[in-house]
């Protein structure tokens, strides 16, 4: 595999100004790391993790990073972000202090701990900026190697933009697919399965993905001999190295992390191959040091030997660059010393400015609250009871917003009986203002707040005529997808068996022949990176539909969905979006691994995505039409046993939309409301027919959409009439039925209308066994629904409905 020479043309071509610029940034970054650690120990920040020791590789990477490129990295890339012009030292410290203002801290608005970098890809209205003109960074996540699946998608987008002529007009996002996706990862994190899955996917896809492995020999306290076979990721990946240009595979480079000249040459050469040929590249940066250890949570002196610590001091990359600059005559001792001293001043000024910008508004808020509290004390005569808490707030040298709100709330608690006090009312109004402001600071943007948000998409009713044909449900989806593919060239679909055969249930059948392999594409068996491929492409303006073949297999991808796309808008406070559609199928079929309905797990894991559970393929098609016109991610779970059931195909199959969060009443009734979704709708309707035969009138409601859930409180309105409710689904007990009960009784306050105990009917607390009998005895059936409803009615009217058993 290629190894860079220590002194080469690329580095030699740099001017003295270039070299000293990089040396200056390297030392500023080192001083920022040192200062950041001190701020944590002084109590001005909660935690710190820094990029010291990795300055030179990141400076070299920045020299290869061009407008339009994307970074998908991890939490030690501060030097790169500054060198790329996408981070200032004041913003760096603002993030350390958790400044909740996107102007001061544009990456996460204080929502992620320090070292989690991002650029704002969206304007104030939630629309994409001209990404082809910007240097872009996708929003970092903490779980190790979780940046890798998304990296595949960022690079894959370049392949689509280059090879699909229909996309060439989208110059806002790409210039002929020339953009490289740069990934960074620590050596220990390459042990994660996501890393290997992503590397294999990139090799198969042949995409411009450039991965840097910063190898400092440790993963916190665990050395490489416990982490990596042969203690070298480049050695064990050597089989991925292509043998000749034009062959499938990787280019792999190995370079020392303290060798500035070799680093610059390596990155410029590697990026050129990646950009021009769309060949993935791995750069293994070895002999990297970590002067302050892993983080502020511990000291590396506890697990590194004296010899290792001495070696790290000797091979510190900034020390080595200093020696090289002097040896090559690029600078004098005095020049370098002056740069090092200036770096301290630059960082100190940035740190002080960031602290003042963060803390002064809090002090002002504290003073405003104190003025109202003092007025309350004077007016109510509650000086004795209020004095201590007010004075504690007044003399707190470093109050936080929680201290202010906590004091105000407790003060109002003490004067709760003094209803006529004007000062009390003023303080109460002020509290409402504080809570609203802090809701925006800390709770906003879980979902899109743009005009393209899914809840803003106008409903268009499905149109049928006397001539509307009755077809298999899968054909409704097929027609829907075809219409959308014709409408928008940015839409594409990927997944296992999606391309050649049109997915295992044929909803994409024939579409690859019509739209080409780039639009309807088979993938390997790799659920995690299928999702990541979609996330990265969606970040770059494309509209991916990524398929997970069965709902049970979503577990392979649930971590990426939860940690990345579901919280993307939230953790960037509206700075980034990835409107990914995840398509899967679940609920009733046969066997332990093909009939799962783990909805409770899903609902708890992916808040920030919409979760839609249509009962048939027409409703599913309406949801796809809605989502493909919105800017939000969603999971659509189709009924696995519904593809061959007959449905009428709408005349406007590619245009009609089903609104999110709006249940549909399938049958009117007066005695009880049964709330369900998905395949259970047919079972409940069967049971409702049987109940009618014994004089029980059931109102059946299909929620259709679990996230969001019944935004107009249709279910509460039903309970106002029936006064009884049964929640039924195929999840385990305490899963989605408990969620629906909480939404209706707690959020909708519908407990007020109940005359009987609310009931939940779920599956058995295990996965369903194989066979029709396994299904019947492990999941709710029509007789179970009948009995649950009958028992409720028998409790209310025992004479009319005597006990059956």
From TrEMBL:
SUPFAM superfamilies according to UniProt: Thiamin diphosphate-binding fold (THDP-binding), TK C-terminal domain-like
Name of the molecule in the record: Transketolase
Cofactors demanded by this protein: thiamine diphosphate
Keywords: Oxidoreductase, Thiamine pyrophosphate
GO molecular function: oxidoreductase activity, acting on the aldehyde or oxo group of donors, disulfide as acceptor
Domain annotation Transketolase-like pyrimidine-binding: ranges: 471-645
Alphabetical list of InterPro entries matching this protein: DH_E1, THDP-binding, Transketo_C/PFOR_II, Transketolase-like_Pyr-bd, Transketolase_C
